[in-house]
Amino acid sequence: MPDKVSMIVFSGTDDKLIPVGVISQAAAALGYEVQIFFTGWAMFKLLKEPMPETWPKEFEGMVPKLKEGLARVKAPSWKDMLKEAKKMGAKVYVCSLMAEAAGLKKEHFDPSLVDDIVGVTTFLENARGGQVLFI
Amino acid sequence: MPDKVSMIVFSGTDDKLIPVGVISQAAAALGYEVQIFFTGWAMFKLLKEPMPETWPKEFEGMVPKLKEGLARVKAPSWKDMLKEAKKMGAKVYVCSLMAEAAGLKKEHFDPSLVDDIVGVTTFLENARGGQVLFI
Amino acid sequence: MPDKVSMIVFSGTDDKLIPVGVISQAAAALGYEVQIFFTGWAMFKLLKEPMPETWPKEFEGMVPKLKEGLARVKAPSWKDMLKEAKKMGAKVYVCSLMAEAAGLKKEHFDPSLVDDIVGVTTFLENARGGQVLFI
What we know:
Three copies of one chain form a homotrimer.
Chain A: E1 4-9, H1 14-29, E2 33-38, H2 63-72, H3 78-87, E3 91-95, H4 96-101, E4 116-118, H5 120-127, E5 131-134
Helix pairs in contact in A: 1-3
């Protein structure tokens, strides 16, 4: 049985989506079974019409330099890294409770990113025996 | 031996307490051994006279809609979910170092929520061999 | 084989560095194999000339009392706790992708804190089979 890495992505600021992409892609490439469960504010980043960019208030002044640096080293966007991870088998889910509370259905989400809307129980069962990160 | 889910809850914004409640209740219902270790700002949410509501500055504008949606789908409060988890065996601890630094003793905390004040070493020993989330 | 605790430290606010120090030192003392991978904003706290203190906007008003309380209970600084953990074998790494994007090399980082700059793949391989916290 392969090792598993599961992520619960709650924070919706764009900075924290970078490690979501990086870890997903690296773990999938290493042969890990990867699942990512988007909930909270982060869920709105997966919509066909996603929430605009949001950066943490504490570090707003450092964002232009971060973006410039990531462009210079040709880092792919977090969405492109997530898509690469998905090509290697990673699964991306949206939390059914939070989607329902926001009045969102599967058709509202970008189908190139989201595999399904599932409950936390399904997520926990899939995650059993593996590593879990809360981001 | 049952699988274990342990959580370190540090962030004191109310949004992140929703997944604490949801995950606790779902994991306890699945038969996981659940322990939750409140520290940092989150500890003040467990007081008999808790800290007032605090929401992340970046998403303040979305809070009324979130609350309305959670009410519409009849989601229980995080405290009620935590209490359900506790009925199924989940344990809730407060970090002794942070409590002492804040001048707080066991009698300051809501006894319907908090089982005990313990040190991080006890938490880590209880968490050994299981999943750990930092929230 | 000893149990392992790995941490990805992304958030750069000073409050979250307290649990990084506390958990590192406690886990190392318990005999865990500990590695800490600094990335994102947190990386700038390890520079020879570190980023100034930054606290979460939501809790700024509570910071003076927190600092006063930690001083009163004689809690060591997070850097001193990290150094204690390192004496017991903990390893501290900086993320190569984020360092390169920021134009930072090994010589920019405080050698009493940082062991090496490594990629996320190395981190994940080291973390395999253990607990992983995202802070």
